[in-house]
Write a structure and sequence with these properties.
By secondary structure, the protein is mainly α. The protein has 5 helices and no strands. Helix content is about 85%, strand content about 0%.
Length: about 170
């Protein structure tokens, strides 16, 4: 069963998560001069380079979650927000793969960039379509399941009133 959330609860939880994320990034940047480790410095530098991608996919997915809390017709944009946010998430994951391949493993395969770019386009398109379609399917399922339960609820109320009238 789906947990019912409020807009304020979603905003509050996402805001706390975002603030904690920024605190962790700031703390990592503060520790770079004190930790003499090339890998640590490279990871912090990578996070700094990709902070806008992380912020964008976080904001888009949070926006999608905000719209999903609302009722129909206001929840219609949420699959689109989630789908666009998932594109940035896939881009970030590919940046991680490229970083691990180039920086941490130090394997320099000459055509890996072309392979990653072609693979990114295919996977990004597939993920976008899956997230978009599944989001709208979820909205349709909620519409039809709520209609049935509303009819059952109304029908039960009518039956109770008819029984009361018969008893009196």
């Amino acid at each position: 069963m789906r947990q019912i959330k409020s807009v304020t609860a979603v905003l509050f939880s996402r805001l706390i998560g975002f603030i904690l994320f920024l605190i962790i990034i700031a703390l990592l940047n503060f520790l770079v001069p004190y930790i003499d480790n090339i890998t640590f410095t490279a990871v912090v530098h990578f996070l700094n380079q990709n902070i806008w991608i992380m912020i964008l996919f976080s904001l888009l997915i949070a926006g999608g979650e905000l719209f999903s809390v609302l009722t129909l017709p206001f929840n219609l944009p949420y699959p689109l927000f989630n789908a666009i946010g998932s594109l940035f998430l896939v881009k970030f994951l590919f940046n991680i793969l490229s970083f691990v391949n180039n920086e941490l493993i130090n394997v320099n395969v000459p055509n890996i960039g072309i392979t990653f770019k072609g693979l990114f386009i295919i996977i990004a398109a597939i993920v976008f379509l899956i997230v978009l379609i599944s989001g709208y399917v979820k909205i349709l399922v909620e519409i039809y399941s709520n209609d049935d339960s509303d009819e059952d609820y109304v029908q039960k109320k009518v039956v109770k009133r008819v029984r009361r009238i018969r008893i009196n």
